[in-house]
Amino acid sequence: MRKSLLAGASGIALALALSACATSANNSGGSAPSAAEESGTSPKLTDCTNKMKNDAPQVSVWGWYPNMATVVDNFNSQHTDVQICWNNVGQGQDEYTKVQTAISAKKGLPDVVMLEADHLSSYSIQDALVDLVPYGANDVKASFSEGAWKDVSSGDKVYAIPVDGGPMGLIYRTDVFKKYNITPPKTWAEFADSAAKVKAAGGPLFGDLGSNVPAAFMALQIQKGAVPFGYDPANPQALTVKLNDQASKDVLNYWADLAGKGLVGKQDQFTTDYISGVVNGKYATYTSAAWAPGYLTGAGVGKGDSKGVWAVAPLPQWDEANPVSVNWGGSAFAVTTQATDKKLAALVAKGIYADPASLEDGWKKQVIFPLNKSVLDSPEFAENKTDFFSGQQANKEVYLPAENAYKGVVYAPITTYYYAQFQAELAKINAGKATGDQAADELQANIVKYAESQGFKVTQ
């Protein structure tokens, strides 16, 4: 991780220096691309995981969805004008390390790359991603919610086409709630009260404070009213950083208190130990997103003793009178500036995982929570009885209302570094080496110092 962070740092500093020279010539991304930018000669690619359906020009794609093979075949079967050459180079940090290495080397990126929405600014500021507005991005804007579109946009520019999202909810064990006579908490205050009640009765941990999920904690801080970053590509050297406001501190202090009292665990999530604990009833709840059923099922949860005991409720609120919907995760397809034929690559980014067959395969198999309104507005999706939740209509009751209310977030172009530092502060909280206040203040100082070292003019 350290190597990729340093690589990204030098890239951002260089990108800011160049943008300072180019700002006056910037046209906000709305003009038509030049002929040289628009098209190129697409080479015949030979290292594709999939087989081509015809001899049309090829566009290379990196993607990690579990059903990408099906999605790519669906797209290629429906197109005689372009074919996708797909490879899975890993996901999360594995992919991002490869992306950053290729950006720094100025070669090696695919034409189209699947990225999480919170990482788009980190790469667009390095001039690694194409603004898709001149290539018809707004033609598909109406297919997505306001929040989903904001997550892939930066000012007037659009750097990716969204596919799936992660509206958050509270997954819980119905057997534990029944045994201890508790109901899904509607507020975080009720969550803490229920956690104390279950512990006093000798029950399991009520949840988990994993230091390796900083994105989830950022979402909860935003739910409380925090606005961590302000950034506009029209003024790329300016960055607002507010990580130690009262809302941010309140959330960290809340979870630090629960962890300190032994009401929630401190196990890093997405690990073998954590999943073992989930399967064996170590945790009564899992604060997560709409993609969680697919992840948990794939990890072996919902089988044996952990089968038929799961349900989901709306995410508890900090202020029940003023509910706020937040999102954790979500991916999109971006066109890289290394693409041979950007017009053709944009056609792929707009069309991949957008056809009815692929979307249906994704949500029916609990692979993704799609953001395309053709699914979100369909009665079949709303009324679907989720297998993992024993037939509960989770979309209708929890995830659809959360997605429809989500307003989107402004992400900073230093997300990778920010998450790494946030993770370190969460680990200190777990170890009893920092209070929520101290962690927030130290995070603010570290991120401001880093941002300024990269050439940003920081407003606090």
Description:
The chain is α/β, with parallel strands linked by helices and 460 residues long. The chain has 2 domains: 2-165 and 328-385, Periplasmic binding protein-like II (D-Maltodextrin-Binding Protein, domain 2, 3-Layer(aba) Sandwich); 167-326 and 411-459, Periplasmic binding protein-like II (D-Maltodextrin-Binding Protein, domain 2), CATH 3.40.190.10. Helix content is 42%, strand content 14%. It contains 19 helices and 14 strands. It has helices spanning 2-22, 35-38, 68-77, 93-105, 120-124, 146-151, 174-179, 188-200, 214-224, 246-260, 272-279, 292-298, 342-351, 356-364, 373-376, 379-383, 394-405, 415-430, 436-453; strands spanning 58-62, 83-87, 112-116, 153-154, 157-158, 161-173, 207-208, 229-231, 238-241, 264-265, 285-289, 310-314, 327-335, 457-459. Strands 1, 2, 3, 6, 11, 12 and 13 form a 7-stranded mixed β-sheet that branches. Strand 4 and strand 5 (157-158) form a beta hairpin. Helix 1 (2-22) packs across helix 4 (93-105), helix 9 crosses helix 10 and helix 10 (246-260) packs across helix 19. The longest helix is centred in the N-terminal third of the chain and has 21 residues, at 2-22. The protein is globular and about 65 Å long. Residues 1-7 and 20-30 have low confidence and may be disordered.
Name the overall outline: globular
User: How much β-strand is present in the residues?
Assistant: 5-15%
Q: What is the number of strand segments?
A: 14
Share in helix: 40-55%
Poorly predicted regions are 1-7, 20-30
Helix count from the secondary structure assignment: 19
| CATH architecture descriptor name of the largest domain | 3-Layer(aba) Sandwich
Averaging pLDDT over every residue, what do you get? Answer: 91
Please tell me the total number of domains: 2
Distance between the termini: 27 Å
The CATH C-level name of the largest domain is: Alpha Beta
Work out the radius of gyration: 22 Å
How does the major sheet shape up? Answer: 7 strands, mixed
Fourth-level CATH superfamily of the largest domain: Periplasmic binding protein-like II
CATH fold-level assignment of the largest domain: D-Maltodextrin-Binding Protein, domain 2
Region (Disordered): 27-50
Biased composition (Low complexity): 27-43
InterPro entries: Bact_solute-bd_prot1 (IPR050490), SBP (IPR006059)
Organism: Microlunatus flavus
